[in-house]
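Agenda item 2: pyridoxal-5'-phosphate complex prediction
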Amino acid sequence: MPDYVISQDTLPRDGRFGSGPSKVPTSRLEALAATGSALMGTSHRQAPVKALVRRVREGLGELLALPDGHEVVLGNGGTHAFWDAAVLALVESRAQHVVLGEFGGKLADAVAAAPFLAEPSVRRAEPGGLVLPEAEEGVDTYAYVHNETSTGVMSSVGRVGDGGALVLVDATSGAGGLPVDVAETDAYYFAPQKCFASDGGLWVAVLSPAAIERAERLSRERWVPPSVDLVQAIDNSRKDQTLNTPAVATLFLLAEQVDWMLAEGGLEAMVRRTTASSGVVHDWVARTPYATPFVADPEARSLVVTTVDLEGVDAAEVAAVLRANGVVDVEPYRKLGRNQLRIATFPAVETSDVEALTACIDDVVGHLTRHRS
Ligand SMILES: *Cc1c(COP(=O)(O)O)cnc(C)c1O
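Presented output:
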């Protein structure tokens, strides 16, 4: 058990730097408790919960500057469930996937395993690297990740291929913290437990008219289980509800975060925040002899998830001491297997807390180095 005590003056005010689930401001939990008997434990088919769903859909529409004809759709099961819905109702025959890490790879694997789809085309980057999708003959769906949470690489978002192909962007950890023009996408999808400072279990997708049209057509041609039926999700969302019972607290926390984002100045203001917070990490890495950026290309370094390789010091030991002091979840993505720290700089994280975190890391590394010599 690491027994080094970091001084109170050095510690961040909130020690949560996880990449998902991520920091939920405690004031939001208090706001949830303050709803008392008005919301939790009431029917999701009645006005209070439906008004909450409407608040989420309208707020996200404003935040993401919803283009004409695009719709904010939501359903249960998190991003994983949306992937299944997309395999069933958005990929016509052959998809191209960009795989930058774990998350881009999961959808590629799901499509490859679907017996009714052709073998997908896969463009794979070395971990920490970026590749972009590329127009390809015979591809009807392009799929890539806005922010690869497992490596801390961000991608630009734009259309690929000719007019007929759909562009699906996994923005689970990027939406709300990275710049985007959703008109460049057909499905810009995410879950609320990253930039939206809420809990898991829900998916949200901004769908274009072309995506909705394809989903309606393919789900007439294929058998689709109801819980992952995109058309049922679209129909229910239009009525400000979900097919089955949603987690009301998750919706409430999401609505609060979206309203806060809008009050702070919208997506541009959020990008300024994540740029400032990730900049604190990048500046600290640049002046710290034992730290190097995992993502070599500065343009590809994420504004919302930063990854830092350590040298001559055991990152797991550093993370363990931090954890014992209440500074949590800076361990690297488990399957990456690197001597690394991963620090989320989502909008809800205070830049001053990121500064405090870097001071804590220096403090712990100093202690571990003295201890060893
Ligand atoms: C967290 C994450 C997911 C998985 O989200 P779930 O809601 O747990 O299914 C998928 N893609 C990316 C990029 C993520 O960061």
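Discussion summary: The mean pLDDT is 97.
Owner for follow-up: CH.
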